[in-house]
Amino acid sequence: MADPSPPGPALLANLEPAPDAPPTSRRRRWWRLVALILGLALVLGAGGTAGAAWLYTRSVDKSIERVDAFVGVPEEGRPEKVAGKALNLLIVGSDSRDPEVAGSRTDTIIMAHVSASREDAQFISIPRDTWVDIPRSADGKSGGRKAKINAAFAWGGAPLLVQTVEKFTGVRVDNVMMVDFAGFKDVVDALDGVEIAVDEDFTSVHSSREFAKGDQHMDGDTALDYARQRYQFADGDFTRMRHQQQLVQAIIERAADRGLMKDPARLNSFIRATADAVTVDKGMKLFDTVWGLRGLRPDGMTFMTSPSRDTGWVGDQSVVFADEDASASLYEAVREDEVTDWLIANPQE
Fold first, then answer.
1. Family per UniProt (predicted)?
2. 83 phi and psi, to 5 degrees?
3. How far, in Å, CA of 158 to CA of 163, rounded?
4. Which of 253-284 are b and which e, b meaning 16 or more Cβ less than 10 Å from the residue's Cβ?
5. Could you say which of 124, 264, 302, 323 has the lowest number of CB atoms within 10 Å?
């Protein structure tokens, strides 16, 4: 894919400032925040000056809700930061309009690792049914035992999920991003749709929409429907995770194309759509994150799944058992900022 023509500071000047954010709560959309950060990074990497970039990013920052994702997380129990300049982001998502998702459990958990060079990033999906040790919740009423990893969020919110993921991976989480997958429609529509390579014929259990194998152009409703399906597939949630990864990648590639970069109004609509309902931790510095990622491009991103050994049952619960050896090897590479080398030695399908 060709690099976009540099629009320079003029493009940034045409992007309208954000109004002050209303005090109402916003739905949380993890993939929207990925799109927001990378979309802003694309703008900054396209020729904008640091000063203009700071002003625009600051205006977007006003519309983003923040949460204390690390409150009550004991420092003495956290992993050490090994590769100081690398970034490890915990991305948490749910689908508020999916009839299969109940309560406050998450259906998407991703460890996003951005290398110290900022030239590559890996998005590692952790299956929501992974059977792990969950620390005791702050109120002492839950946890302290093994359970599905997504129970951590239901029992203790973002802080307990941070503790659980850090215990499972041995990787220190730098920042937390939370979003609602249902809001995905607005971002896709702001991009005039995305291109998805459907891997097999199937029918949606929610809408009866037919998906034919091959390349398809999808609008927001269609893409959201595509990302929700799991019961038609032998590996269920694993296929859904792959489809979600496809969609994030398609959004990023679409956002980076020449048409968007040359159309300030359309680019602004895309960025505002992604920022509208995003929640991040209080310590996250949006400008520093975006400016640091301005050189990252879609071909430097890898989407993968945390290694699993098998699926099975614990009592009446269907669970995923992690491949402990492969997981230890992968997350050691994350800690040491050596994931690119790990991928060469362990090629993904």
1. Belongs to the LytR/CpsA/Psr (LCP) family.
2. -95, 95
3. 9
4. bbbbeeebbeebeebbbbbbbbbbbbbbbeeb
5. 323
Instruction: Give backbone dihedrals phi and psi of 162, rounded to 5 degrees, phi first.
Output: -55, -50
- What's the order of all strands across the beta sheet hosting 108-114? 65-67, 279-281, 175-180, 87-94, 108-114, 121-125, 301-305
* Residue bearing the bigger pLDDT, 47 or 223: 223
Q: How many Å apart are CA 153 and CA 85, to the nearest integer? A: 28
* Sign of torsion over alpha carbons 227, 231, 233, 239: positive
The two structure tokens encoding residue 257 = 């194309």
CA distances from 152 to 45, 66, 92, 156, 209 (A): 37, 20, 12, 6, 34
Rounded-to-integer distance, Cα 114 and Cα 83, Å: 11
Of 94 and 201, the one with more pLDDT: 201
pLDDT 10s digits, 124-173: 999 999 999 999 998 899 999 999 999 999 999 999 999 999 999 999 99
pTM value?
0.79
Reading the block at residue 116, the tokens are 């110290």
The C-alpha angle 318, 205, 98, rounded to 5 degrees, equals 70
Average pLDDT of the residues of the chain: 81
